[in-house]
């Protein structure tokens, strides 16, 4: 049987606040105390038990011998440990003992409990070491949030902004119930308006504008992809021929109606804006949304019926010429100033009407009289040099790289000039043309389209126009029967728009890869297009606009192209 220590003695030994003299006296009394006989079954402070029979002693002696010895050794070890701790604590001051009790708790009776408590943080550290680096960074960056010292109830109430009494905010209202908006809602609305006006988020506003090392890795993966062969494309994204999916939208100039002929319609190269100009002496800018197309601004030029208006290559200026004036108006959109150019130094033309802006924004080409082409600096509006062809100039255009000029003459010939040297590179006769009316080049530098008085549009390869004296057209489009006055390629070089201002509904869209006309445009039964004088595609071919003699800027949404 396990020996038992009196509870009173255990309490005395386990009490750290007991005076040292009393603690020594208790230790001496315990040493002089007689240890009871285990075999007789005696107890502390009690009579001895009756001796067991010889049979019971023999049967139970072997199984109990080992546990009894182990218990005696454990009790002796605990006694020695307790004695050593008490001896150490006698030398400790009371403040240190109190601090240990606060930190480790009252575990004098059981050191194993203290060891278990000290072992728990080690396990937690091992578990934390298995966490990922991202979790460790999140834990390191996490800072405990402090509670505010005081709260203002007025701060919790959202401040409302009046939308009715401000003419700029009033235009942003979607319905009559939005007479007041919170600051957060107004900020979201302003962001939406800005993105609509800019045609998306500008590059300088993107968070991931600067290149990171991960971008280099992705480019290397793309290079590896291009070096391998296989079926990487499941479906084609090219424009299908036959039927063009499109929708008739609200007129671009619906918020500023007019009955004067529309002479120019053009989409802004960077923003989701369209410009409409006509013989009513006004240039108007509209935001394109396909539903209402709200008006942004109108510039009125007194006694100046506009023959042509055009954006600069960067979209910061608008250039306009008149039907009977030699003044060239330049409207600075950033500064809001209208600058008239009364006289170009070295230019003796009495009337400036037809002109072209180079795609790179460096040059301005003016079609003069007597076969002269005048090349001006776009920045200074000063004359750089002149080029001359035989006969009169019917139309002219720049190549996509702005290094060459194509000019169609009244004799049915096409001239190709070098911009830098102002030398004629080639000259050829447009097949079947008596005299030319229009000319256009594709954005990818592949095609040259020439429109003649007989309604035929010849599509040439640009390389053949530079190298051959008698190039053959790739295809002759004969869907019009009157003179082709307008030609426009879309930015992806998948559509060629052709039109004649001499016949109503005389407009066609040509599918370039197959050189076939889309059968569903125009809808002849409706007859709402009338006489077309100008056409243009939006920067990503999402919209197509036409201007007619009734003062309407018709606009269509091309569903094949997802962007503006």
UniProtKB/TrEMBL annotation:
The keyword rRNA processing is assigned to this record: yes
Q: Where are the WD repeats?
A: 393-427
- What this chain does, per the record? Part of the small subunit (SSU) processome, first precursor of the small eukaryotic ribosomal subunit. During the assembly of the SSU processome in the nucleolus, many ribosome biogenesis factors, an RNA chaperone and ribosomal proteins associate with the nascent pre-rRNA and work in concert to generate RNA folding, modifications, rearrangements and cleavage as well as targeted degradation of pre-ribosomal RNA by the RNA exosome. Involved in nucleolar processing of pre-18S ribosomal RNA.
What is the gene called?
A: UTP18
Q: Which InterPro entries match?
A: Utp18, WD40/YVTN_repeat-like_dom_sf, WD40_repeat_CS, WD40_repeat_dom_sf, WD40_rpt
| GO-annotated biological processes | rRNA processing
Q: Which locations, inside or outside the cell, does it occupy? A: Nucleus, Nucleolus
- Please give the name of this protein: U3 small nucleolar RNA-associated protein 18 homolog
Q: Which residues form a coiled coil?
A: none
Q: Which GO terms describe its cellular component?
A: Pwp2p-containing subcomplex of 90S preribosome; small-subunit processome
Gene3D superfamilies in UniProt: YVTN repeat-like/Quinoprotein amine dehydrogenase
Please list where the region (Disordered) is annotated.
Answer: 1-60
Q: Which UniProt keywords apply?
A: Nucleus, Phosphoprotein, Repeat, rRNA processing, WD repeat
Summarize subunit and interaction data from the UniProt record for this chain: Part of the small subunit (SSU) processome, composed of more than 70 proteins and the RNA chaperone small nucleolar RNA (snoRNA) U3.
Entry annotated with the keyword Repeat: yes
Q: Where is the composition biased (Basic and acidic residues)?
A: 1-10, 29-40
Which Pfam family is an annotated match for this chain, by its short name? WD40
């Amino acid at each position: 049987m396990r020996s038992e220590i009196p509870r009173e003695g255990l309490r005395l030994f386990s009490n750290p606040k007991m005076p040292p003299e009393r603690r020594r006296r208790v230790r001496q009394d315990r040493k002089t105390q007689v240890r009871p006989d285990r075999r007789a079954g005696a107890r502390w402070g009690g009579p001895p038990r009756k001796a067991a029979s010889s049979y019971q002693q023999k049967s139970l002696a072997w199984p109990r011998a080992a546990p009894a010895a182990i218990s005696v050794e454990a009790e002796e070890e605990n006694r020695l440990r307790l004695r050593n701790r008490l001896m150490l604590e006698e030398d400790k001051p009371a403040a240190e003992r109190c601090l240990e009790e606060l930190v480790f708790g009252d575990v004098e009776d059981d050191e194993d409990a203290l060891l278990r408590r000290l072992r728990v943080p080690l396990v937690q550290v091992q578990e934390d070491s298995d966490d990922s680096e991202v979790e460790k960074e999140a834990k390191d960056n996490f800072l405990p949030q402090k509670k505010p010292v005081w709260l203002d109830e007025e701060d919790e109430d959202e401040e409302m902004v009046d939308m009715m009494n401000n003419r700029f905010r009033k235009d942003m209202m979607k319905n009559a119930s939005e007479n007041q908006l919170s600051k957060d809602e107004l900020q979201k609305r302003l962001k939406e308006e800005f993105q609509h006006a800019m045609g998306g988020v500008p590059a300088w506003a993107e968070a991931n504008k600067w290149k990171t090392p991960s971008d280099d890795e992705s480019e290397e993966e793309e290079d590896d992809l291009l070096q391998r062969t296989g079926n990487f494309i499941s479906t084609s994204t090219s424009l299908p021929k036959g039927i063009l999916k499109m929708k008739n939208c609200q007129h671009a100039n619906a918020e500023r109606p007019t009955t004067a002929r529309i002479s120019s319609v053009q989409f802004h190269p960077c923003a989701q804006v369209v410009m409409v100009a006509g013989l009513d002496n006004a240039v108007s800018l509209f935001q394109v949304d396909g539903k209402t197309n709200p008006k942004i601004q109108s510039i009125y030029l007194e006694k100046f019926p506009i023959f042509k208006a055009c954006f600069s290559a960067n979209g910061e200026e608008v250039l306009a010429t008149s039907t009977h004036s030699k003044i060239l108006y330049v409207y600075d959109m950033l500064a809001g100033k209208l600058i008239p150019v009364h006289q170009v130094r070295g230019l003796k033309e009495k009337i400036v009407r037809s002109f072209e802006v180079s795609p790179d924004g460096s040059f301005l080409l003016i079609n003069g009289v007597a076969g002269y082409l005048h090349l001006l600096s776009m920045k200074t509006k000063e004359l750089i040099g002149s080029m001359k062809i035989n006969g009169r100039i019917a139309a002219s255009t720049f190549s996509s790289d702005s290094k060459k000029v194509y000019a169609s003459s009244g004799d049915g010939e096409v001239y190709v000039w070098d911009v830098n040297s102002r030398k004629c590179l080639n000259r050829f006769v447009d097949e079947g043309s008596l005299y030319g009316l229009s000319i256009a080049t594709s954005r990818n530098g592949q095609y040259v389209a020439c429109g003649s008085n007989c309604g035929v549009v010849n599509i040439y390869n640009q390389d053949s126009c530079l190298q051959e004296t008698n190039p053959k057209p790739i295809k002759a489009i004969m869907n019009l029967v009157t003179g082709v006055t307008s030609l426009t390629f879309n930015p992806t070089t998948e559509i060629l728009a052709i039109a004649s201002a001499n016949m109503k509904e005389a407009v066609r869209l040509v599918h370039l890869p197959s050189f076939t006309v889309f059968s569903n445009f125009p809808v002849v039964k409706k007859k709402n297009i009338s006489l077309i004088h100008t056409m243009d595609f939006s920067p990503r071919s999402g919209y197509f606009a036409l201007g007619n003699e009734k003062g309407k800027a018709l606009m269509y949404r091309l569903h094949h192209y997802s962007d503006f």
